[in-house]
Amino acid sequence: MDKNFVIGLVLIMLMLIGYQVLVPKPVEPTPVAEVKKAAAKPASVTSDTTQNSSQSVDSTVVPQKDLVIETKDARVVFTNKGGVMKEVMLKNYKTYDQKPLYLIAEKHNNFQIDLPTQTGDVRLTNQTFSTDAQDRTLAEKDSAVITYKTTLKNNQTVEQTYVVRGSGYVIDYGIKASGALPANKSVEFHWDNDLLQLENDMKKNREVVTVNYYTDELKSLPTSPTSNEEEKTADPVKWFTIKHKYFLAGLIAEKQPLTNVTMRANVNAEDTVIVKNMNIFAGIPTAAVQKGEANFQFYLGPNEYHIVDKVKAENFDQNVYLGYAFLKPINKFFLVPLFNLIEGFVSNYGLLIILLVLFVKTLLTPLTYKSYISMAKMRILGPELEQIREQNKDDIAKQQQEQMKLYQQVGVSPLSGCVPVLATMPILFSLFFLFPNLIELRQQSFLWASDLSTYDSFFKLPFNVPFGIGNHISLFTILMTASSIGYAYYNNQNTPTQPGPVNMKALGYVMPLMFMFILNSFPAGLTFYYFVSNIVTIAQQLLIKRFVNEDKIKNILEENRKKNATGEKKQNKFQKYLEKSLQAAEEAKKKQAELEKKTKKK
After folding, report:
1. I need a surface site. Which of 284, 302, 454, 557 has the fewest CB within 10 A?
2. Measuring CA to CA, which residue among 282, 269, 273 is closest to residue 211?
3. Distance, CA of 382 to CA of 402 (rounded, Å)
């Protein structure tokens, strides 16, 4: 072998060795199953990645990191992915099955913020933010400031700031962006929240959960247990709340009301985990974001009146429904403060309800006494009223005239017994609206009821009964119905039968049965209140009876009869009204008689 051949052979060997060392091994083809799996990924994942890489300065992948702030009342988890809240757990409350109660849950909540820039919209919740804040457990009077920052294309920076206090349920939030932003666009805020089942009855939950929002008045998204709802408003929204039965997750605008707000409630009747899915779309003015004036507050806590009443937002206390406008003052200024006052001394809520009944009934004793006296007068006049009916069986008009004469003679108003009863009705109706909204009764047990804020399911039925009964029987509702029928029976024994198309005595038995159907699925605390109220009312009447001398009342009526006959007694307004009515009836009767005579002559 010559010299050149040897050199060439060595070079070829060196090239082969170098190729094996320096050139990487070929990548093995991806299995078909994995290709299909990758193709099945949502399109949004690809678009979000593209958006992040095009708008972010640093394309380095930063791992997702959580930040945990513990307070007296809540455990709040933030994430650097989007700089948003990831979880909010309320420490002082549990779900109906005693699990931790989350108003914001990791897999059931999504915040989305789209920031318009000169180079296109940026989805901030897909950006990675940085913060110097560390995990903390706050003392009750302490607070923590968490600031998340990120840098976008063209050196634009975005800063989100949260202030968490050591107690309470309000978290301050602010967003600020540097650089020029399009003036004709808004920062788009989207909150997608799955309402997890917090209370025991899924159907009842779906009937009440909604979105409350405040413009210049409180408005609510229509509620339906089966159909989806949507509502848009062009009016600026000062605050909105995603309302569970007893809890709120909401956003309050301090200076810059939200614009172009759209609310949606989506329901899947077959879902056994999610009550409803709530979607809120809202606009934040870009000028406010640029100036650092886009400041808000999250309220994430119980819908308890004395707590929401202290939130610094216009009429935020209206999240607790206290009934119709004419009933609301009774609840707001009387029953709620009274309930909270007794609550400070009594820890057992069954006993609290009993004390509430006793206080209200004692306050209404003068009206109860007046009602009993009126019933006693009607009872004394019973024989005379029956005689009038017997004498005028076929002439109802004559019956009424004679009865009015009798009332005028003895100075009795048949309506005087109704007025005291009607005066107590507003309190009964106010309680009807108040008790279903009292979170204080939630998971409070008494006797056989494990939770006074919902019905006591004493008997379970293997089928559903219509008309509101459902698949259970509430023992408190049965006791309420029995006591109402007992009270009606007691009244009927002491009240003469009144003429008219409606048998009022029979109606006294029918009404409790109707309410049994209506109230069977209402809170046990409400039906227990009505039951105790009926028992106390009967006891009051029996006690008053012992101190009322009916012979003395009879003598007073006879004395009135004599004085009215001689003109000694001055007539009251009702007696004057009766006298005018009688005169008008007599004149009408005479004219009718004259008309009949003329007709016969013709």
Report:
1. 557
2. 282
3. 13
What are the structure tokens assigned to 113, written together? Answer: 């913020």
pLDDT in tens, 267-293: 988 888 899 999 999 999 888 888 888
Position with higher pLDDT, 27 vs 150: 150
Residue-by-residue DSSP string for 323-387: -STTTHHHIIIIIHHHHHHHHTT---HHHHHHHHHHHHHHHTHHHHHHHHHHHHHHHHTHHHHHH
Tokens of 252: 């309050």
Dist CA 437 CA 533 (whole Å):
20
Q: Quick check: 145 and 267 in contact, CB under 8 A?
A: no
Would the pLDDT of 552 be above 90?
A: no
pLDDT above 80 (res 29): no
Any idea what DSSP says for residue 96?
T
**Furthest-apart CA atoms within the chain: distance in Å:** 164
Residues near 476 by beta carbon (within 8 Å), at least 6 away in sequence: 449, 456, 524, 527, 528, 531
Q: Where are the beta strands (DSSP E) in 200-246?
A: 210-214, 218-220, 229-233, 239-243
Which residue type does 90 have?
L
DSSP-assigned letter for residue 449? B
CA separation, residue 153 to residues 51, 54, 59, 120, 150 (Å): 11, 8, 11, 10, 10
**Among 84-93, 118-127, 327-336, 337-346, the range of highest mean pLDDT:** 84-93
CB-based contacts of 343-350 (< 8 A; 24+ apart in sequence): 343/440, 348/446, 349/440, 349/441, 349/444, 349/446, 349/452, 349/525, 350/446, 350/447, 350/452, 350/528
How far is the C-alpha of 184 from the C-alpha of 508, rounded, in Å?
66
pLDDT of residue 42: 36
CA gap 452, 350 in Å, rounded: 8
Amino acid identity of 304?
Answer: E
pTM above 0.85, yes or no: no
Report strand pairing: 136-137 vs 66-70.
parallel
As a whole number of angstroms, the distance between CA 438 and CA 153 comes to: 51
- 187, 334, 193, 203: which is closest to 253 by C-alpha? 187
Q: Give DSSP secondary structure letters for 164-175.
A: EESSSSEEEEEE
Q: For residues 293 and 256, what is the distance between their CA atoms, to the nearest angstrom?
A: 8
In this prediction, residue 99 has a pLDDT band, given cuts at 50, 70 and 90, of very high
Q: What pLDDT shows up at residue 507?
A: 67
Q: Is 137 helix (H, G, I), strand (E, B) or coil?
A: strand
Residue pair 114/124 in contact (Cβ under 8 Å)? The answer is yes
Contact 457, 474 (CB under 8 A): yes
Average pLDDT over residues 105-116: 91
Q: Which residues are CB-contacts of 550 (< 8 A; sequence separation ≥ 6)?
A: 376, 379, 380
Angle in degrees, 0-180, between the axes of helices 349-363 and 365-380, rounded to the nearest 10: 60
Q: Which amino acid is at 359?
A: F
Q: What is the pLDDT of residue 251?
A: 94
Res. 52: pLDDT tops 90: no
**Torsion from C-alpha of 364, 370, 371, 372, nearest 10 degrees:** 110
Angle, alpha carbons 25-53-109 (nearest 5°): 110
385 alpha-carbon distance from chain centroid: 50
Residue pair 298/242 in contact (Cβ under 8 Å)? The answer is: no
Task: Specify whether the CB–CB gap between 353 and 449 falls below 8 A.
Answer: no
Summarize pLDDT for 524-546 with one digit per residue, the tens. Answer: 899 999 999 989 988 888 888 88
pLDDT band at 200 (very low <50, low <70, confident <90, very high): confident
* Token pair in block for residue 599: 């007709």
